[in-house]
C-alpha cells in the first residue's frame, strides 16, 4: 500500500485488519500486517510516504500481487506530486500488469475530488491499457468504500 504521507494508508490498513480506527503517527519505514478479507489473505506492506522514503518503495516491488495506492482526495496542492509518484511506480518492470486499486480517501472532507475526476486527473485511462485498475472513493476513518474497493481487487486477483 503506497501513497504520499498523510494520505491515510495506515488508517486504512488497521481499519481493514481490526475494523477500528487506531491512533497513528507518520510511518517511518513500513508496517506489515496480514489482512483476511473474505476468501483472500493479504500480506499488506504499508510503506511510509514521506519524500525521503519514496525512493525506497522500489525495494518492495518484486513479488507484488496488487497495488493499493492511497490519495488524499482533499489535498489538491499535492495532486501533481501524487500523480508523478504513481506513474513513476507504474512504469517499473516488476509492476507491469499488476492490478491497481486507487483509494480516493477523505471523501468526507469538503472539496475532495470524486473518483471519476481523480481518475481523469491521474490520466490512467490513456496510459494503463494493459493493467486492471480502479479508482474508488473511501473514507478511512468511517470505513466507507473500503469493502467495495477490496471486492473489486479480490475479483481481479481471483481471475488471474
From TrEMBL:
Q: Name one GO molecular function term.
A: metal ion binding
Q: Which PROSITE patterns match?
A: ARF
Binding residues for Mg(2+), per the UniProt record?
10, 27
* InterPro entries hit by this protein: P-loop_NTPase, Small_GTP-bd, Small_GTPase_ARF, Small_GTPase_ARF/SAR
Entry keywords, A to Z:
GTP-binding, Magnesium, Metal-binding, Nucleotide-binding
Q: Which residues bind GTP?
A: 3-10, 49, 105-108
Family membership: Belongs to the small GTPase superfamily. Arf family.
Q: This chain belongs to which protein, by name? A: Uncharacterized protein
User: Which organism was this protein described from?
Assistant: Phellinidium pouzarii
Amino acid at each position: 500500500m503506497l501513497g504520499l504521507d498523510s494520505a491515510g494508508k495506515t488508517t486504512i490498513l488497521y481499519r481493514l485488519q481490526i475494523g477500528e480506527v487506531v491512533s497513528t503517527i507518520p510511518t517511518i519505514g513500513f508496517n506489515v500486517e496480514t489482512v483476511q478479507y473474505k476468501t483472500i489473505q493479504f500480506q499488506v506492506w504499508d510503506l511510509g510516504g514521506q519524500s525521503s522514503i519514496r525512493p525506497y518503495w522500489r525495494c518492495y516491488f518484486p513479488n507484488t500481487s496488487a497495488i493499493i495506492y492511497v490519495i488524499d482526495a482533499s489535498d489538491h496542492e499535492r495532486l501533481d506530486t501524487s500523480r508523478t509518484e504513481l506513474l513513476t511506480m507504474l512504469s517499473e518492470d516488476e509492476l507491469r500488469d499488476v492490478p491497481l486499486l486507487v483509494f480516493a480517501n477523505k471523501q468526507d472532507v469538503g472539496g475532495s475530488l470524486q473518483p471519476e475526476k481523480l481518475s481523469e486527473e491521474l490520466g490512467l485511462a490513456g496510459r494503463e491499457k494493459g493493467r486492471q485498475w480502479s479508482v474508488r472513493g473511501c473514507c478511512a476513518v468511517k470505513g466507507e468504500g473500503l469493502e467495495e474497493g477490496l471486492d473489486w481487487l479480490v475479483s481481479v486477483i481471483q481471475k488471474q
